[in-house]
Amino acid sequence: MRTTDGGQLALGLAFCALLVIVTLTDLQRRVIPNVVLLAGSLVAVAIVAATDPGSFGARAIAALAAGGFLFLVAFACPRGMGMGDVKLAAVMGFYLGSAVGPALLIGFAAGTLLGLAMIARRGLAARTQAVPFGPFLALGGVVALSYGDAVVNWYLDAFP
Protein backbone atom coordinates (compact mmCIF):
# COMPACT_ATOMS: atom_id res chain seq x y z
CA MET A 1 0.00 0.00 0.00
CA ARG A 2 1.12 3.52 -0.69
CA THR A 3 -0.91 5.37 1.93
CA THR A 4 0.69 7.27 4.77
CA ASP A 5 1.60 5.21 7.81
CA GLY A 6 -1.51 6.35 9.69
CA GLY A 7 -3.69 5.80 6.65
CA GLN A 8 -2.19 2.38 6.04
CA LEU A 9 -2.79 1.43 9.66
CA ALA A 10 -6.39 2.66 9.58
CA LEU A 11 -7.07 0.86 6.30
CA GLY A 12 -5.49 -2.36 7.58
CA LEU A 13 -7.43 -2.30 10.85
CA ALA A 14 -10.72 -1.60 9.09
CA PHE A 15 -9.98 -4.39 6.61
CA CYS A 16 -9.19 -6.91 9.35
CA ALA A 17 -12.35 -5.95 11.27
CA LEU A 18 -14.39 -6.45 8.10
CA LEU A 19 -12.79 -9.85 7.48
CA VAL A 20 -13.53 -11.01 11.04
CA ILE A 21 -17.20 -10.07 10.67
CA VAL A 22 -17.41 -11.71 7.25
CA THR A 23 -15.74 -14.90 8.45
CA LEU A 24 -17.91 -15.33 11.52
CA THR A 25 -21.12 -14.55 9.64
CA ASP A 26 -20.29 -16.82 6.72
CA LEU A 27 -19.38 -19.70 9.04
CA GLN A 28 -22.55 -19.30 11.13
CA ARG A 29 -25.15 -18.32 8.53
CA ARG A 30 -23.46 -19.17 5.21
CA VAL A 31 -24.09 -15.67 3.95
CA ILE A 32 -22.04 -12.49 3.61
CA PRO A 33 -24.46 -9.64 4.34
CA ASN A 34 -24.61 -6.79 1.83
CA VAL A 35 -24.86 -4.25 4.64
CA VAL A 36 -21.49 -5.40 6.03
CA LEU A 37 -19.84 -5.16 2.62
CA LEU A 38 -21.39 -1.76 1.95
CA ALA A 39 -20.22 -0.41 5.31
CA GLY A 40 -16.74 -1.82 4.70
CA SER A 41 -16.67 -0.23 1.26
CA LEU A 42 -17.69 3.17 2.57
CA VAL A 43 -15.05 3.03 5.29
CA ALA A 44 -12.38 2.11 2.74
CA VAL A 45 -13.40 4.90 0.37
CA ALA A 46 -13.33 7.42 3.23
CA ILE A 47 -9.90 6.34 4.45
CA VAL A 48 -8.40 6.30 0.95
CA ALA A 49 -9.97 9.66 0.09
CA ALA A 50 -8.48 11.19 3.25
CA THR A 51 -5.03 9.60 3.15
CA ASP A 52 -4.16 8.59 -0.42
CA PRO A 53 -6.62 9.91 -3.00
CA GLY A 54 -4.12 9.33 -5.80
CA SER A 55 -4.52 5.56 -5.44
CA PHE A 56 -8.29 5.66 -5.85
CA GLY A 57 -8.26 4.78 -9.57
CA ALA A 58 -5.88 1.84 -9.20
CA ARG A 59 -7.88 0.51 -6.26
CA ALA A 60 -11.12 0.82 -8.22
CA ILE A 61 -9.57 -1.16 -11.09
CA ALA A 62 -8.41 -3.85 -8.64
CA ALA A 63 -11.92 -4.01 -7.18
CA LEU A 64 -13.50 -4.39 -10.62
CA ALA A 65 -10.95 -7.01 -11.67
CA ALA A 66 -11.30 -9.10 -8.50
CA GLY A 67 -15.08 -8.88 -8.44
CA GLY A 68 -15.27 -9.55 -12.17
CA PHE A 69 -13.05 -12.61 -11.90
CA LEU A 70 -15.12 -14.14 -9.12
CA PHE A 71 -18.32 -13.20 -10.95
CA LEU A 72 -17.14 -15.31 -13.89
CA VAL A 73 -16.40 -18.19 -11.51
CA ALA A 74 -19.85 -17.83 -9.89
CA PHE A 75 -21.50 -17.62 -13.30
CA ALA A 76 -19.72 -20.76 -14.50
CA CYS A 77 -20.55 -22.68 -11.30
CA PRO A 78 -23.54 -20.99 -9.61
CA ARG A 79 -24.01 -23.68 -6.96
CA GLY A 80 -20.35 -23.47 -5.97
CA MET A 81 -20.00 -19.79 -5.14
CA GLY A 82 -22.40 -17.12 -3.99
CA MET A 83 -22.63 -13.49 -4.95
CA GLY A 84 -21.50 -12.52 -1.45
CA ASP A 85 -18.10 -13.98 -2.27
CA VAL A 86 -18.05 -11.98 -5.51
CA LYS A 87 -18.84 -8.74 -3.69
CA LEU A 88 -16.29 -9.56 -0.98
CA ALA A 89 -13.59 -9.98 -3.62
CA ALA A 90 -14.46 -6.56 -5.05
CA VAL A 91 -14.25 -4.94 -1.62
CA MET A 92 -10.96 -6.71 -0.99
CA GLY A 93 -9.67 -5.32 -4.28
CA PHE A 94 -10.35 -1.78 -3.10
CA TYR A 95 -8.64 -2.35 0.24
CA LEU A 96 -5.63 -4.23 -1.17
CA GLY A 97 -5.14 -2.79 -4.64
CA SER A 98 -2.95 -5.01 -6.79
CA ALA A 99 -2.24 -7.24 -3.78
CA VAL A 100 -5.74 -8.68 -4.25
CA GLY A 101 -4.25 -11.09 -6.81
CA PRO A 102 -2.18 -12.99 -4.24
CA ALA A 103 -5.13 -12.80 -1.82
CA LEU A 104 -7.42 -14.58 -4.27
CA LEU A 105 -4.72 -17.11 -5.11
CA ILE A 106 -4.21 -17.93 -1.42
CA GLY A 107 -7.96 -18.14 -0.84
CA PHE A 108 -8.46 -20.55 -3.73
CA ALA A 109 -5.43 -22.63 -2.69
CA ALA A 110 -6.65 -22.93 0.92
CA GLY A 111 -10.16 -23.84 -0.23
CA THR A 112 -8.77 -26.42 -2.62
CA LEU A 113 -6.64 -27.99 0.12
CA LEU A 114 -9.66 -28.33 2.39
CA GLY A 115 -11.70 -29.80 -0.45
CA LEU A 116 -8.99 -32.37 -1.20
CA ALA A 117 -8.74 -33.27 2.50
CA MET A 118 -12.51 -33.76 2.66
CA ILE A 119 -12.43 -35.99 -0.43
CA ALA A 120 -9.52 -37.99 0.99
CA ARG A 121 -11.44 -38.51 4.23
CA ARG A 122 -15.00 -39.07 2.96
CA GLY A 123 -14.57 -40.01 -0.67
CA LEU A 124 -16.23 -38.38 -3.66
CA ALA A 125 -19.45 -37.88 -1.70
CA ALA A 126 -17.69 -34.95 0.01
CA ARG A 127 -17.88 -33.04 -3.27
CA THR A 128 -21.54 -32.30 -2.58
CA GLN A 129 -20.90 -30.79 0.86
CA ALA A 130 -21.14 -26.99 0.89
CA VAL A 131 -18.27 -25.08 2.50
CA PRO A 132 -18.40 -21.30 2.95
CA PHE A 133 -15.72 -19.62 0.84
CA GLY A 134 -15.62 -16.26 2.65
CA PRO A 135 -13.23 -17.47 5.36
CA PHE A 136 -10.75 -18.62 2.71
CA LEU A 137 -10.92 -15.24 1.00
CA ALA A 138 -10.42 -13.62 4.41
CA LEU A 139 -7.34 -15.75 5.02
CA GLY A 140 -5.94 -14.67 1.67
CA GLY A 141 -6.77 -11.06 2.49
CA VAL A 142 -4.92 -11.11 5.80
CA VAL A 143 -1.84 -12.70 4.23
CA ALA A 144 -1.95 -10.26 1.30
CA LEU A 145 -2.25 -7.32 3.68
CA SER A 146 1.23 -8.14 4.97
CA TYR A 147 2.91 -9.78 1.99
CA GLY A 148 0.77 -9.12 -1.08
CA ASP A 149 2.68 -6.11 -2.41
CA ALA A 150 5.98 -7.98 -2.00
CA VAL A 151 4.59 -10.94 -3.96
CA VAL A 152 3.32 -8.66 -6.74
CA ASN A 153 6.69 -6.84 -6.92
CA TRP A 154 8.58 -10.13 -6.97
CA TYR A 155 6.40 -11.41 -9.78
CA LEU A 156 6.78 -8.23 -11.83
CA ASP A 157 10.56 -8.29 -11.35
CA ALA A 158 10.86 -12.00 -12.16
CA PHE A 159 8.63 -11.91 -15.24
CA PRO A 160 8.98 -8.49 -16.89
Verbal overview:
This protein has 160 residues and is an all-alpha fold. It has one domain (5-158). The chain is built from 6 helices and no strands. Helix 2 (34-51) runs parallel beside helix 4. The longest helix has 25 residues, at 5-29. The radius of gyration is 16 Å and the shape is globular.
Task: Map the helices and strands.
Blueprint: H1 5-29, H2 34-51, H3 56-76, H4 83-96, H5 100-122, H6 134-158
Major β-sheet, in short?
Answer: none
- What is the CA-CA span between the terminal residues? 21 Å
As a percent range, the share of helical residues equals over 70%
Number of helices: 6
Q: What is the count of β-strands?
A: 0
- Strand percentage lies at under 5%
Provide the domain count.
1
Any low-confidence stretches, pLDDT <50, length ≥5? none
Overall SS class: mainly alpha
Q: Radius of gyration, Cα only, in angstroms?
A: 16 Å
**What is the N-to-C succession of helices and strands?**
HHHHHH
Q: Which geometry do the CA atoms define?
A: globular
Q: What is the average per-residue confidence, as pLDDT, rounded to a whole number?
A: 92
In short:
Helix content is 79%, strand content 0%.
Features:
79% helix, mainly alpha, globular, 160 residues, 6 helices
